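Is this the right way to post structure tokens for a design question? Let me know if I should format differently. Anyway, here goes:
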């Protein structure tokens, strides 16, 4: 997963005002100790210029990334920098309203979304982005409780939110709605819109081993998955062609514009350790309760089907807050289908029969997602007739 190239990635040894800004954010979160360098403008200027991204900063960044469900690399790129800024906000720190041009993002928005859901209103996904669904849910709450229904979370609305107890109990209401809509939609793929996102592309080849590139292999996988899903009646879209490399924002916008029912991102992994190998899957989740129920279910299904059909090592499913999972308006999963840097995984992935088995595994996982529980076959056994 690349970081937005418009921002210079900050890493161990870097110095300057941008590092000082990272220090300030980490201190506000209690991840770095205050160093007493809070004097006036004259005293602050040399501190800004000479602030160093040292080992303590890297450790604090890694801790923050781990807790926030980001890629843990100890560096500050676009996604980590944005997450640091979002983590600074608590509900009540600022006025919250819907701005279609520059949507407000932050932990205060997560708190608002969770509170509105607890009171029985649908505010859309708990993703920390104040979008149109959050505004609709907030307006409905304000209208029912005699407040000015302007969709803005100001002092009066905050007081009402804090005074009222939970109205919905027995689970996370928005997630229960999401699961229920999948059950109601029926056990078939005809008419389903599924977006398959092969990672990297164009000049971004991903990990390369000899003449083998991650971009080419995942595009081959995506094409095989596309064929199998289409044969089963689904409408399938790929986010890119063989020589294209859309940004993460373009990939999620494509899926949202297509009004997809499911989003599947495909990657391969690599690591300097000779022991790193296996299959992992990822779904949207903050680690503090907010997550995609259907995304988590599908992440588990897809990973287990791939493991059962290829014999690769099972590395589990994990919640992440990557924008690729967070900004899609449908259940989204990233599937890492093995390590190109590991000799055994690489041999398997270079075998067209194994790639076909992975494609069949994804098809089976999608089909099982829509099957009623009593009709769900054991992992690794489901085959669609004629496919």
């Amino acid at each position: 997963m690349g970081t937005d190239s418009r921002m210079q990635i900050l890493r161990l040894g870097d110095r300057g005002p941008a590092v000082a800004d990272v220090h300030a954010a980490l201190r506000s979160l209690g991840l770095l100790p205050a160093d007493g360098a809070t004097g006036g403008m004259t005293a602050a200027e040399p501190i800004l210029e000479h602030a160093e991204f040292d080992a303590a900063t890297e450790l604090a960044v890694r801790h923050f990334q781990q807790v926030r469900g980001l890629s843990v690399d100890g560096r500050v790129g676009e996604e980590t920098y944005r997450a640091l800024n979002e983590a600074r906000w608590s509900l009540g720190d600022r006025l919250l309203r819907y701005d279609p041009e520059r949507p407000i993002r932050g932990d205060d928005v997560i708190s608002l979304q969770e509170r509105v859901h607890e009171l029985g209103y649908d505010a859309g996904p708990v993703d920390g982005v104040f979008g149109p669904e959050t505004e609709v849910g907030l307006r409905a709450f304000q209208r029912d409780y005699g407040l000015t229904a302007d969709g803005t979370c100001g002092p009066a609305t905050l007081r009402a939110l804090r005074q009222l107890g939970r109205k919905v109990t027995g689970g996370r209401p928005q997630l229960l709605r999401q699961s229920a809509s999948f059950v109601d939609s029926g056990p078939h793929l005809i008419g389903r819109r599924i977006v398959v996102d092969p990672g990297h592309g164009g000049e971004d080849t991903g990990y390369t081993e000899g003449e083998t590139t991650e971009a080419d292999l995942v595009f081959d996988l995506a094409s095989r998955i596309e064929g199998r899903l289409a044969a089963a009646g689904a409408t399938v879209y790929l986010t890119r062609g063989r020589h294209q490399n859309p940004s993460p924002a373009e990939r999620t916008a494509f899926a949202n514009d297509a009004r997809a029912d499911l989003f599947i991102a495909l990657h391969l992994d690599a690591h300097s350790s000779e022991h790193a190998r296996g299959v992992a899957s990822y779904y949207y989740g903050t680690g503090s309760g907010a997550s995609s129920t259907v995304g988590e279910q599908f992440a588990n299904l897809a990973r287990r089907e791939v493991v059962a059909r290829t014999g690769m090592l099972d590395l589990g499913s994990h919640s992440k807050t990557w924008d690729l999972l967070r900004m899609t308006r449908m259940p989204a999963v990233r599937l890492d289908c093995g390590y190109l840097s590991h000799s055994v995984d690489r041999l398997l992935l270079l075998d067209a029969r194994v790639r076909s088995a992975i494609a069949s595994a994804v098809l089976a996982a999608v089909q099982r997602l829509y099957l009623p529980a009593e009709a769900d076959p054991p992992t690794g056994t489901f085959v669609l007739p004629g496919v």
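Format looks fine. Someone answered above. Worth noting: Residues 352-370 form the longest helix (19 residues). Residues 23 and 32 are 7 Å apart (CA to CA).
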